[in-house]
Design goal:
Belongs to the dTDP-4-dehydrorhamnose 3,5-epimerase family. With about 190 residues, the protein is mainly beta. The chain has a single domain (about 1-180), classed as Sandwich (Jelly Rolls), CATH 2.60.120. It is built from two helices and 13 strands, in the order E-E-E-E-H-E-E-E-E-E-E-E-E-E-H. The protein has a six-stranded antiparallel β-sheet, with no helix packed on it. A five-stranded antiparallel β-sheet has the order 9-8-11-6-13, with no helix packed on it. Strands 3-4 form a two-stranded antiparallel ribbon. The longest helix is centred in the N-terminal third of the chain and has 6 residues, at about 30-35. It binds dtdp-4-keto-L-rhamnose.
Length: about 190
């Protein structure tokens, strides 16, 4: 397994070992002890699965309080996956990292607490799964504009398919400070 650090501390790209043979392939998509050794030391409590059609953009989402780490993996198709640092006082506040995740590259993306997360489906359809470090708390579910001009994320489209909630999301500068996590409050 290979773990690659990104430009933002704590955000990691993971390339699990894949064992190929005449039948196909096998891979471990999570192993508590080994992932902890690579800094993904999380008691994951929930697994999610979403299916989306081409051009769908889900995000950018975070929970606060009840922040969640996420370990994202694509079962079929391809997405452009993005993590945005929304921790007040962080040296990388408002900065983001994006990476292609696909059933072909079999990469995983680890997103720590305090980051907003979103993805664009760039294949015909995509089946995306992710482990979460806390339960879903609808009252703490927060959304940040996918096209916030302050973030300058190059999604490669200006007309994604959005949920009504995501289409109405505020920019970072318009989110009340009490709704944003604080740098250093998470372990
Ligand atoms: C996220 C979530 C949603 N739901 C329900 C609420 C709603 O009726 C329906 C669809 O919810 P949403 O529109 O928020 O789904 P979606 O836009 O896919 O939300 C997800 O987006 C990605 C980018 C993330 O990072 C996730 O944490 C989550 O926020 O599913 C749950 O029951 N449990 C959950 O954990």
């Amino acid at each position: 397994m290979r773990v690659v650090d990104t430009d933002i501390t704590g955000v990691r790209i993971i390339e699990p070992d894949v064992f190929e043979d005449a039948r196909g392939f096998f891979m471990e998509t999570y192993q508590r002890q080994r992932y902890a050794g690579y800094g993904v030391d999380v008691d994951f409590v929930q697994d999610n699965l979403s299916f989306s059609s081409a051009g769908t953009l889900r995000g950018l989402h975070y929970q606060y309080p009840f922040a969640q780490e996420k370990l994202v993996h694509v079962i079929s198709g391809e997405i452009y996956d993005v993590a945005v640092d929304v921790r007040r006082g962080s040296p990388t506040f408002g900065r983001w990292v994006g990476t292609a995740l696909s059933s072909a590259n079999r990469r995983q993306f680890f997103i720590p607490k305090g980051f907003a997360h979103g993805f664009l489906v760039v294949s015909d359809t995509a089946l995306v799964t992710y482990k979460c470090g806390d339960y879903y708390h609808p009252e703490a579910d927060r959304t940040l504009r996918w096209d916030d001009p302050a973030l300058i994320i190059d999604w490669g489209t200006k007309t994604p398919l959005l949920s009504p909630k995501d289409a109405a999301a505020p920019s970072l500068k318009d989110i009340p400070s009490g709704y944003l996590p604080v740098y250093g409050e998470f372990k």
